[in-house]
Specification:
Helix content is 18%, strand content 26%. By secondary structure, the chain is α/β, with parallel strands linked by helices. It has one domain. A hairpin with a 6-residue loop joins strand 1 and strand 2. The termini are far apart.
Amino acid sequence: MSICRYKKLKCPDCGCESEVIIWDSINVQINPEAREDLLRGDLHVFKCPQCKEETGFEKSLLYHDMERDFMVWFYPFKSLEDPEFFNEFSDDGNLDCTMGLIDTDTQDYAKNIHYVFSMDELVRYIRFREKLADVKNPPIKVKYAE
């Protein structure tokens, strides 16, 4: 499931208010355009309609690719400064299933989420997993009789 919402933000340069899309989670099979925006660097960027200033903002994001069986969760690095942030995790660094953040009946890969702390790292990990899946499981080429 993909989750997004709209929020009004003020331009830090001129103060103009404009609405932006904020993604909490992206399922790339449902919203492939959000994947493209993320990989292009256009996700979570405020683009002022008045002065044309572009400002990125960091917000946690769960990225889910069902076809390639992986999930990666981006958290802003400043999350590590909040002691309560760690309450969501078990001692081994995985999400604590007892907190109800993960359905225990879900796919195994969803219980093994990878965590990153920068948007660049998120994009690199996505590219790595996509390339890995393509190399390990290439599409089957069908030859037709002439």
